[in-house]
């Protein structure tokens, strides 16, 4: 049942290989990722045919990808190509020649299919109900309107980073004002013909290299503290700002801009201009970046599973389960600690000892479920490793702030350490967040101790509050256990953090 | 073949449980670690017998440890006890009572045995030929002289952190000068009777909680940048300094000292005083800390393997192989990249293009072998994860500086990132180190690309230098491969970092 599959995506700008590993439970992990900038659209002759040189370049690259796939035991290679070949006059010949020489079968995706794959990727990796998904590639732009997590409309426009540069901006050292005006006018005229773009109040989700680059440049500029691109949120204004930064920087020194990867200096302006044009037209304020894109959507489609995914399914839970499986945590223990934590939290909430809501209960649940994940790295300093993993490995569905809060609750040990970590991320977290993390952190330390032997010694907890003292009654199998002893040690910290006297009682069932 | 074993170590100060997991290949990993401060030596009556209350406390704790062992599928529990029971008049009764109630068989270790276990732990985790190993516990101190990695002499003295406090320092708020003098005099008189302590030129290796605490306080004070205690090196003077810091701080505010764990405030002074007394007497300059101690030595002995370990075996290689196995790297690929790296490095050294020695070749070999270790965490940002693992997880045998250099070579991507990391660790690394890391980093990037498909496409490399240009000839199976293509891309960076023109040639064998 477990297998490797590869997606090769031949675009106008680059040819990209991604190898996925699918485990026995159907969870998908990327295991390799390689990109070569072939710039196929630069190899069109005057008749709109891809030249022999272009084909040869592509084939050389694909032969090497084939080697890598063979070395990695890939059972199935799916080749797709988008605008690059969609627009070529000799596309069938090229595809046949590639097949003859490499054995890889390429499928020319329609703009509609491209949009759909992008939508699938976003739906399975972002907790968002309504959005315009805008995927700007080398030779085309797909815009999709998603509502209640359904694909409602989509369209493909023949403008991409590469051909915008060639057609409008002419690769000059500095972008000409008139050229830009001309570009904006044409895009505006094109967008005007799409009736469903107007009067929606929802964010744009950007996919593809241009979007990732915008986020990366912005993170460098603002010295963003968190190491993640997926689900990064920006204002439309920020995108505008980055466009002007790029415009002002002559082509020859553009590679100096931090966050701009080499091989993209000459086309980035086209892609960013397109984002500003689209976002201005549909008049949105928020811009989110998804690092999941059409290749991921294709993989989901091949595996069929996500396509039939229940649209109401909580994607956070789905990904957390996979995460837990990947890092091989003891799920029985994790679930029990989560159960005890949420039970205790809700009762403290009801007794008005904690001033929170179900939103915080959800963050606590995630932190409780994943608290032990650092153990995969090493049994020593587990809390540090848990913090590292949760703050450095993508957990789709959660915002960056939520991911940080979860990471800090799950790895909470001492107020002092928390202090310095919150300080490091003070562009994302504030003092109230710190207070929340501290309280849920000590709560989780306590509930973890209630399942120290991972054998459900404590089956449940009941909170009793007499106005002066809070009693946490633990329903136990045996009256004396290491769990109750440890719980007694941890509950001492509650007074300081919750402002009440606490005690633990063991109740034999 | 794989199994869990537990060591329970009942000392004068605390009762400690460590659970080890031993895999099918015999490698040992700690999977749990728990400590309760029972302070057994405080439960002696006037006849030197452990009181019923003391026995009951121990038994309650051991019953809980037993639960945890059962929950963790421990097949074998080994109980040892040291000075605490060695000195008790009713030791046999106590051991029998414990066995009757908990089924755990305790063995009273002699001071000699204790010393031997500490020695085994040090020998298997530090790359050191000659040292005094000083293990200060709650009720005794073991001093061992190791030469050429053999145990030459050992002795056990009945002075430990707990009884020094009781006998000499009397738990006063502030330590009395006369009490201290009296203590130093007695220790000096005792040490004078040990002929082999004098006239040796070698460092002290400290084991046990006092040593770890000294290191931890020192790291806080100096804001040490590296997250590791094992193999931490200090001057004798630093230990003296920490002793005076502790002395000056009244008992009631001692818990404020960063690095001092709670439950140790009242005895730490005794242990540190003993270290200063011993180190002053034997007149050494260097103090190393080992986090591996007698429990680890006992585990090694039970498993018999390390005891028969070849004393000449390179402990770095041994631990690196285990590390690689634990993090499940592709060893064939790792070994091949290591082989290519060292081959290329040595030839560049011989051609006087690189100014290094075999010492650096060894660091490169370790980095090359472990370069892909971050993949365990995630395929994205592998280099970052590699850096995290290598700089946060103990690699016994290497110094902190060496571990950092290895981590930075293995995860090298760009000079700019390296710059900021070296800056973060500027208490350990200097500019020359940065230059070394940069050069070996680009070299490793290149050799990694030579085995990109992990299929030994490039079997070997030969360096040709005509005084102007360096040619790296790659012995290949096929003339065209992704490896040679990538190698051509990476070798471009060589000119900048090595100051010569480079080219790659593929030679078909």
TrEMBL record, chains A, B:
Transcription regulation as UniProt keyword: no
Domain Ppx/GppA phosphatase C-terminal: 320-469
GO molecular function ontology, one term from the record: hydrolase activity
GO biological process, alphabetically ordered: regulation of transcription by RNA polymerase II
Transmembrane segments: none
Domain Ppx/GppA phosphatase N-terminal: 24-305
UniProt keyword terms in alphabetical order: Hydrolase
UniProt record similarity statement: Belongs to the GppA/Ppx family.
Alphabetical list of PANTHER family matching this protein: EXOPOLYPHOSPHATASE, RETROGRADE REGULATION PROTEIN 2
Name this protein carries in UniProt: Uncharacterized protein
Organism (species): Desulfuribacillus alkaliarsenatis
Taxonomic classification: Bacteria, Bacillati, Bacillota, Desulfuribacillia, Desulfuribacillales
């Amino acid at each position: 049942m477990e297998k490797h599959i590869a997606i090769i995506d031949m675009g106008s700008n680059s040819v990209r290989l991604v190898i996925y590993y699918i485990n026995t439970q159907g969870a998908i992990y990327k295991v390799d990722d390689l990109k070569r900038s072939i710039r196929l659209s630069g190899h069109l002759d005057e008749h709109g045919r891809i030249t022999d040189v272009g084909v040869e370049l592509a084939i050389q690259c694909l032969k090497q990808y084939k080697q890598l796939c063979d070395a990695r035991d890939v059972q199935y290679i799916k080749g797709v190509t988008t605008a690059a070949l969609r627009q070529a006059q000799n596309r069938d010949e090229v595809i046949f020649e590639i097949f003859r020489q490499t054995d890889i079968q390429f499928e020319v995706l329609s703009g509609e299919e491209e949009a759909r794959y992008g939508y699938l990727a976003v739906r399975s990796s972002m907790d968002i109900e309504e959005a315009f998904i805008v995927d700007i590639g080398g030779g085309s732009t797909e815009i999709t309107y998603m509502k209640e997590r359904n694909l409602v409309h989509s369209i493909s426009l023949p403008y991409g980073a590469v051909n915008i540069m060639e057609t409008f901006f002419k690769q000059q050292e500095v972008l000409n004002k008139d050229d830009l005006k001309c570009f904006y006018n044409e895009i505006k005229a094109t967008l005007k013909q799409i009736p469903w773009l107007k009067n929606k109040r929802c964010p744009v989700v950007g996919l593809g290299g241009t979007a990732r680059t915008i986020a990366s440049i912005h993170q460098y500029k603002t010295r963003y503290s968190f190491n993640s691109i997926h689900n990064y949120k920006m204002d439309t204004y920020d995108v505008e700002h980055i466009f002007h930064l790029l415009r002002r920087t002559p082509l020859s020194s553009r590679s100096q801009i931090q966050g701009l990867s080499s091989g993209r200096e000459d086309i980035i302006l086209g892609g960013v201009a397109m984002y500003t044009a689209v976002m201005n037209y549909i008049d949105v304020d928020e811009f989110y970046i998804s690092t999941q894109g059409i290749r991921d959507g294709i993989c989901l489609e091949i595996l069929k599973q996500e396509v039939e995914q229940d649209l109401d399914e909580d994607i956070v839970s789905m990904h957390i389960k996979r995460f837990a499986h990947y890092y091989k945590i003891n799920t029985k223990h994790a679930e029990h600690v989560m159960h005890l934590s949420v039970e205790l939290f809700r009762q403290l909430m009801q007794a008005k000892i904690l001033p929170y809501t179900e939103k915080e209960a959800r963050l606590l649940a995630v932190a409780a479920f994943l608290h032990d994940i650092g153990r995969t790295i090493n049994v020593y300093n587990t809390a540090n490793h848990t913090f590292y993993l949760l703050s450095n490995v993508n957990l789709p569905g959660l915002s960056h702030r939520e991911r940080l809060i979860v990471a800090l609750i799950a790895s909470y040990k001492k107020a002092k350490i928390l202090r310095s970590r919150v300080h490091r991320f003070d562009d994302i977290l504030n003092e109230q967040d710190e207070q929340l993390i501290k309280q849920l952190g000590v709560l989780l330390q306590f509930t973890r101790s209630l399942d120290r032997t991972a054998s459900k010694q404590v089956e449940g907890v009941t909170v009793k509050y007499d106005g002066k003292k809070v009693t946490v009654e633990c329903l136990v199998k045996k009256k004396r256990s290491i769990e109750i002893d440890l719980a007694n040690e941890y509950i001492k910290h509650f007074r300081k953090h919750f402002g009440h006297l606490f005690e633990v009682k063991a109740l034999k069932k």
